[in-house]
Design brief:
Length: 554
């Protein structure tokens, strides 16, 4: 067929195919229009003399039009033509008409190819095949990197975003991809920035890509730039991508150090300056939680406003989601900080300020119990203003936090040198309340409270404090006398830390495990007996009276 005749026939076809009736396009595909047009396109590309742009443009226009059909017919068309052939021919056109910065406007043929590929991408199995076609991906990356018009770059970036989410996609290995996307994220066009950020997000979903993304400075710069823009969708993509990247263990320290804390500062700003966008605040706090490890805890604590931002949310009972996020950061931090850290004072201050929110009581009590269980932390905790009384108040006000608060007080009362702290009326009231609990499930708490009272009573000033408060002193005497008079058995068990105050034998022999089942049965922790509670209550009575206190509690 002569080229003139081809042009005339394809023009007629375009006039016939240029409509939006999906059913009619399905009929055109069923009639073989797609196969005929792909055959003509192949002949034009393979002929010895170069085909005119007009011929190619008309054939591509007709192909794009007929593929406005349903997904089912697109799949049938690609299958009839052959997947490899259906992708290779458009790819050759993109390579032939690729634009260089010193050339004029991009050929309309490139735009038509991209629209045809967009139709193909609607079908999952075809999209999967496209995501594995390296030459096609490389051609699309070149379009993104070649400073084409935004109207041409946009569909290319959209295709890359879809391919990035496909399983087994080789996109991340295409040379120049990350640099091209990073540059696009700085575009003046909001839509281009948004789609580029979506590509980063979809790439970061695969765990294998996260380290690569986290070690490219221009990628981090681009994502942080998006996070500081006004577009809500753009910021959502950016913070989600950053969350995935921060989940990679190899990236955490590098991200925490990035640009001398710039990344952390942007996260803190996002967590506070996005009023009305609570999901962004929640995501920013989640990224901070991801970054908190044994290697980064010290570094995070040094950044200005870090604790202030966490307290702002941790103490806000009205916003449960962001409150939980801030408490999660503090809880992770609690696992890695100690009295040896210069910022430990700031950490403890943040915990006490978080108690302005009642929902934070249980979390803060658990963190203080964890901190007090480390002997090296106890002096710092004891001398921190208001901490001991805060534990007492938490125990009195919130039943769910009572066990952790009393356990923290028990740890703090037992110092290595045999000394103990000077207790206030609040602390003794909290301990007396815990010791008075009658239910069987609270007997462990009761034992912990009586043990702490007995240990504190070693100090003369504490016995004097008790005796000055007559109501408290007589209430405590009544509680202990009642406990000391009971001898019936209970169900339950005591842990080793409490057993040492009741049983004379070696605690390690009682609580140590053994892999042999018979040995394990013989060495199980003995049940709680009311007789044992009575013995401890009697010892506590002697202690607060100043009789043989050292014998029982030193």
């Amino acid at each position: 067929m002569l080229e003139y005749d081809l042009i005339v026939s394809v023009e007629r076809a375009c006039a016939e195919f240029d409509h939006c009736d999906v059913a009619a396009h399905d009929a055109e595909i069923a009639g073989g229009a797609s196969e005929a047009l792909f055959l003509q396109l192949e002949r034009l590309l393979l002929r010895p003399e170069a085909a005119s742009d007009i011929s190619l443009e008309l054939v591509l226009s007709a192909l794009e039009m007929v593929h406005r059909c349903s997904k089912k017919c697109i799949k049938q068309s690609v299958k009839a033509v052959g997947k490899e052939r259906a992708l290779t021919l458009p790819c050759r056109l993109l390579q032939k008409y690729r634009r260089h910065p010193d050339q004029g406007p991009t050929s309309p043929i490139v735009g038509l190819v991209l629209r045809l590929l967009t139709h193909f991408g609607r079908v999952i199995c075809v999209r999967q095949k496209m995501s594995e076609h390296y030459d096609l991906l490389a051609s699309l990356v070149h379009i993104v990197a070649s400073e084409c018009e935004d109207a041409v770059r946009m569909p290319a970036i959209e295709l890359l975003a879809e391919f990035a989410y496909c399983k087994g996609c080789v996109l991340v290995h295409v040379g120049g991809l990350l640099d091209a996307l990073a540059q696009s994220c700085l575009s003046a066009d909001t839509d281009v920035r948004q789609e580029s950020a979506r590509v980063f997000l979809n790439l970061s979903v695969a765990a294998a890509h996260r380290q690569l993304l986290g070690w490219k400075n221009n990628v981090l710069h681009a994502i942080l730039s998006c996070l500081q823009k006004n577009s809500t969708v753009l910021r959502q993509y950016a913070i989600a991508a950053l969350g995935n990247i921060s989940a990679c263990a190899e990236n955490k320290l590098r991200l925490a150090k990035y640009e001398q804390g710039f990344l952390v500062q942007v996260l803190l700003f996002t967590a506070t300056a996005t009023a009305g966008e609570k999901h962004l605040q929640q995501d920013a706090l989640a990224v901070l939680a991801n970054l908190t490890t044994a290697h980064t805890a010290y570094l995070l604590c040094t950044y200005p406003e870090f604790f202030n931002v966490l307290v702002l949310h941790a103490a806000n009972d009205r916003e449960g989601t962001t409150q939980a996020g801030a408490l999660a950061v503090l809880r992770r931090l609690s696992s890695f900080v100690g009295a040896g850290l210069p910022q430990y004072h700031g950490f403890l201050d943040a915990l006490l300020r978080a108690l302005a929110g009642k929902n934070a009581f249980t979390h803060v009590a658990a963190m203080l119990r964890e901190q007090s269980s480390v002997p090296a932390n106890r002096q710092a905790l004891l001398y921190f203003p208001g901490l001991l009384n805060s534990l007492g108040l938490v125990s009195l006000e919130t039943e769910a936090a009572r066990r952790d608060a009393i356990e923290a007080l028990r740890h703090l009362s037992d110092l290595d040198d045999g000394s103990t702290f000077l207790a206030s009326d609040i602390i003794f009231t909290a301990l007396a309340t815990a010791a008075a609990l009658p239910e069987e499930k609270d007997h462990l708490l009761c034992v912990a409270a009586m043990t702490t009272i007995g240990t504190l009573a070693v100090r003369e000033e504490n016995r004097a404090t008790l005796q000055r408060n007559c109501a408290l002193f007589h209430s405590l005497l009544s509680i202990l006398q009642q406990k000391a008079s009971v001898e019936e058995s209970l169900t339950g068990s005591l842990d080793g830390s409490i057993l040492e105050y009741i049983f004379p034998q070696d605690v390690s022999e009682v609580t140590s495990g053994d892999h042999h089942p018979d040995m394990r049965k013989r060495k199980e922790t003995p049940p709680i007996r009311k007789k044992d509670i009575a013995i401890l209550a009697g010892a506590t009575l002697l202690a607060i009276s100043g009789i043989d206190a050292h014998r029982y509690y030193v």
